[in-house]
Write a structure and sequence with these properties.
eight-stranded parallel beta barrel; 332 residues; two-stranded antiparallel sheet; 12 helices; 12 strands
């Protein structure tokens, strides 16, 4: 199935709202995470939403965010051609100062299906103004726009907040009315970064109240949960039943990636590192003792890469189950 845009993504969200399931929004910065995620989603027959933040794009582009976004988005698009599920790209946590350098060219070049404008740190009126600007930019391209109301504690990529401010349901209705956003990210007590879900003071009642107010005003919108890494399955399902249709996951993948790599190198260190006290030149392959050589079957980066991909695939499959999106692709 070719890479798809905002029109088709809107269809997925409408079905998710009606059937009370969610899409996991999967942050990526390099190929091993993407390949592992894609394998899980094809197997589960779930539509795949890939997220690229400005920080991830900057990393992928060697310090140049737009170049990195082009590389990542086109890689996703190339892989999507041979899949039997819908594959989408969302730009994650783009702040108002990055609109001209990041969002405008992404829209013009067809690099995204949706975009999240994060003006949540601004006063309400300024948040509305900045978000509305992006909505107007995206409409001609049929790209969906996600806005955020409320602040989420913690650090994620280049976004940080020392405090959390829960979303006010009445303000949420006003925000959607004035901005006409397609999705609304709300603050219900989750945190960016490493946080154990059982220790959080989650407020699913806020999600339920926001969802109810929007529906009553005939402005139903998929709600978005940021900072979802660390939540248990029952916590995720409770929030989905309250109206959440998009659940962001980044920190989980970062840890699983690092853990898989650490476990691999712990097992294989003796075949990669020279013995203590033995100098080894990686250019000439000369060892000080004249005998030791590293094992190419182990140090080839594709070897650890495959282990990382498999670890990502397993955890992605588990989160698909939590979100309830398995077997529900519009294109399977």
């Amino acid at each position: 199935m070719p890479y798809l845009g905002g029109r088709e993504l809107g269809q997925v969200y409408r079905r998710a709202q009606a059937e009370r399931f969610a899409l996991i929004a999967n942050n990526v910065a390099e190929p091993n995470v993407l390949l592992g995620i894609l394998a899980a989603y094809e197997e589960a027959r779930s539509d795949l939403l890939v997220q690229v933040s400005v920080g991830a794009a900057k990393f992928a582009g060697g310090g140049k965010p737009l170049a990195g976004l082009r590389a990542l988005a086109r890689y996703v698009q190339a892989l999507a051609v041979d899949t039997k599920i819908g594959v989408f790209v969302n730009l994650d946590h783009v702040t108002p100062d990055q609109v001209d350098a990041f969002i405008r060219p992404a829209l013009a070049e067809g690099l995204c299906s949706s975009v999240m404008i994060d003006a949540s740190a601004l006063p309400f009126a300024d948040n509305v103004r900045a978000t509305r600007t992006v909505v107007e930019l995206a409409r001609p391209y049929e790209v969906l726009v996600e806005g955020e109301l409320g602040l989420i504690k913690g650090v994620e990529d280049e976004i940080s907040s020392e405090e959390a401010f829960y979303t006010n349901p009445d303000e949420a209705l006003r925000f959607v009315t004035e901005t006409e956003v397609d999705l609304l990210a709300i603050s219900v007590g989750t945190e960016h970064g490493v946080s154990a879900g059982r220790e959080l003071k989650l407020r699913p009642d806020i999600a339920h109240a926001v969802d109810a107010r929007l529906r009553a005003a005939q402005l139903p919108r998929p709600l978005v949960l940021h900072g979802a890494s660390g939540l248990a399955a029952d916590q995720v399902r409770t929030l989905i039943q309250a109206g959440v249709c998009k659940v962001n996951k980044d920190t989980t993948y970062q840890y699983v990636y690092a853990r898989a790599a650490a476990d691999f190198f712990a097992r294989s260190g003796a075949e990669i590192l020279p013995p203590p006290g033995v100098a080894f030149d990686p250019i000439t392959f000369d060892a000080q003792d004249g005998t030791w050589r590293p094992n190419k079957k182990v140090f080839d980066p594709r070897v650890v890469g495959r282990e990382i991909q498999d670890a990502i695939r397993r955890v992605a499959a588990e989160m698909i189950v939590q979100a309830g999106s398995g077997g529900k692709s519009l294109y399977a």
